[in-house]
Amino acid sequence: MITTSAWFIEGAVTTDGLTQRVSIPMGRFQVGRRADANMCLANPSVSKNHAEFVATEVALFVRDLGSTNGTFVNGERITQDTPIGTHDIVQFADFEFIVGRTSIQGSSLTALCSPSQWQSTLAQFHKLLTSRSVVPHFQPIIRFSDDQTIGYELLARSTHAGLTNPREMFDAAEKIGLAARLSVICRETGVEIANKLAKPGLLFLNTHPSEKPHVGLLESLIQLRMRAPDLGIVLELHESAVTNPKEMAEFRDELRNLRIQLAYDDFGAGQARLLELAEVAPDFLKFDIGLVHDIHLAPQRQQMVAGLVRTIRELGIQPLAEGIELTAEAEVCRQIGFTHAQGFLFGRPVPAESM
Question: Which pLDDT score, from 0 to 100, does residue 216 have?
Answer without folding.
Answer: 82
